[in-house]
Amino acid sequence: MGLAKRAVLFSIMIMVGICGLSMAAVYNVGDSAGWTILGGGLDYQDWAATKKFFVGDILVFEYNNQYHDVTQVNVEDFKSCNPESPITRYGNGTDAVTLASPGEYYFLCGFPGHCQAGQKLHITVNSAGSAASPIPPANNVAPSPYTTKLSSLAMTFAVILPSFLLLV
């Protein structure tokens, strides 16, 4: 095989690998119910308990912005349902929040009474290399079609690297 063809093939393999690395999991908070207090008893902590969040993952909050918002707060304000000193406040109705660093994240609805009614979410974000044990999936819950983990990158290289070495 010519050197030019090998270079093109190698470039394609590198791009596929990079795409695998850059993909993050995207979670729709509350799944089809969204971010609301009208979710028929939806418990956001139960929702989060079936997921494992990593740096780079994205939370999508979908809600009616006439009646709700998304307010990121510290732990004390989360416990007391106090939206008055937000870290960040979102109000578009479809907000994508990228989890930029490992640690604890706290969200609540800043409209009066909504947090007290259960419209709040606490999650733990793990670093990409975290070796914590996986959380078992809830019964009858299908994995998100948007969820892609770094293991796909490892599989990509495990398949492509030997193929490339055969070409050399």
From TrEMBL:
One of its GO terms (cellular component) is plasma membrane. Residues 25-127 form the Phytocyanin domain. One of its GO terms (molecular function) is metal ion binding. It comes from the Eukaryota. Pfam families: Cu_bind_like. Keywords: Copper, Glycoprotein, Membrane, Metal-binding, Transmembrane, Transmembrane helix. The chain crosses the membrane at residues 7-27. InterPro entries: BlueCu_1_BS, Cupredoxin, Phytocyanin-like, Phytocyanin_dom. This is Mavicyanin-like. It comes from Durio zibethinus. The gene is LOC111281380.
